[in-house]
Each structure stands twice: as C-alpha cells, then as structure tokens.
Amino acid sequence: MRIDPSEQTSRDNYQLMIASVIPRPIGWVSTLAADGTPNLAPFSYFGAVTAAPPTLMLSVGRRRGQRKDTARNLLDTREAVVHIPHRRLAEAMVKTSIEAGPELNEFDFAGLGQTPAEKVRPARVIEAAIAFECRVRQHIEVGTGPNDLFLLEILLIHIADELLDGRLPDPAKLAAVGRLGGTGYCDTSAPFFIERPR
Q1: pLDDT score for 56
Q2: How many Å apart are CA 91 and CA 71, to the nearest integer?
Q3: H-type alpha helices, 26-178
Q4: What single string gives the DSSP state of each residue in 165-188?
Q5: What residue spans of the chain are helical by DSSP H?
Q6: Going residue by residue through the chain (198 aa), what tens digit of pLDDT does each one get?
Q7: Distances 111 to 57, 105, 149 between C-alpha atoms, Å
Q8: Is the dihedral of CA 92, 135, 169, 181 positive or negative?
Q9: Does domain 23-184 have CATH number 3.40.1380.10?
Q10: Are 159 and 170 in contact (CB under 8 A)?
C-alpha cells in the first residue's frame, strides 16, 4: 500500500500514525488551572528530548478548535507533574482521558490519591511509580490544528524504591504502559536486551 497524506483527512492521518508509531510512551500530566482546579490527563504524543537540561516534549491536540484543559493550564501556570503510568494504573489512567469540563477533578473521578509536589504547584499521583516535576520552557504551535507543543524542563524526579535496580528503574518491575492504535495498549513487563556493537 502507498499512502499520500495530502490525499486523506487529518483524522485518517491521525489514525494511521497512532497505529504505526508504536508503542508510544504515555505522559500522564497533572496541572492546575489558574483558579487552582486540578487536572489530570494522559497524552501519547510525548517523549524525551534532551538530558541537558533534562527535558520532555508534550504535544496536546485541540478539541473542536479549542485548547484542552492541560494546554490552557500549562500556558497559564507553566508547571506540571508528568507521570509514567504503570500497568496497575492503566484503567485509572484511561478514565482520566474523559472529555469533560474544566471543573471535573480527574483525580477524584478515577479514584486516585494526590500528594503535594516539592518544586511545583500541581499535585502528584500518589500511586504513580515515576513522576517528573516540570516547568514549561517553551511553547510552540505546530501544524494546522494547531497542536500545542510544550518543552518541559524536569526539576525533580520521583521513583518508587521498589522499582530500582541500582539507580535506574527496572522496566519489567515498572511495567510502563505504552499506547498502540485504537484502544490498544502494551507494557514493558517483558523487555528484551541486545548489546550494541563496539
């Protein structure tokens, strides 16, 4: 099959991309609205950018031309906590993707606990095994949607002790959830390892 993206709709391109660029890591993002209302939502257009300084990328699409709560909150307050969801939290994470007004507290809706972050105002998900406290370094509008692309500098990292293999998280113990196409997900509970050539 040969596909020219210019000959199909943005929705068709989106469906093809999310089914092909897999697995995608998920950034589960906690933010605060300007009035202090908490928000929690997952995004799979997400990844690491650089380690100097440690920086994450988050791309937030628009809904019917309007900014989603996460993008609006990041622009207003410029802070977030980005969690890496693990398998035991997958159902709760998906619940927080509900399309609802900014007044909904997704922590409560999904039955998740909150604990204060140390360097930013948004709360952390108590149950999450890895969390990055972040500050917005840059915002760029990308594409015709447009998408709101954020570069988030990591200020502090939280990792559950039971996941550590030395100073690094063990991917099998973490069972980090990745996004596939449609309603598909996967996790890192069965990693394999290949040494690079020297």
Answers
A1: 98
A2: 23
A3: 69-77, 90-95, 106-109, 171-174
A4: ETTEE-HHHHTBEEE-STT-EEES
A5: 10-20, 69-77, 90-95, 106-109, 171-174
A6: 999 999 999 899 999 999 999 999 999 999 999 999 999 999 999 999 999 999 999 999 999 889 999 999 999 999 999 999 999 999 999 999 999 988 999 999 999 999 999 999 999 999 999 999 999 999 999 998 899 999 999 999 999 999 999 999 999 999 999 999 999 999 999 999 999 999
A7: 27, 10, 29
A8: positive
A9: no
A10: no
Asked if 82 contacts 57 with a C-beta cutoff of 8 angstroms, the reply is no
Strands 24-25 and 177-179: antiparallel
- The closest of 126, 102, 156 to 28, measured between CA atoms, is 126
Q: So where are the chain's domains?
A: 23-184
Closest CA to 55 of 157, 167, 161, 127: 157
Report pLDDT digits (tens) over 140-185.
999 988 999 999 999 999 999 999 999 999 999 999 999 999 999 9
Q: What amino acid is encoded at 119 in this protein?
A: K
Q: Is the dihedral of CA 131, 160, 194, 182 positive or negative?
A: negative
Q: Which stretches of 5-78 are DSSP H helices?
A: 10-20, 69-77
Q: Decide if 29 contacts 42 (C-beta within 8 A).
A: yes
Two tokens, residue 163: 């996941």
**Amino acid present at 114:** Q
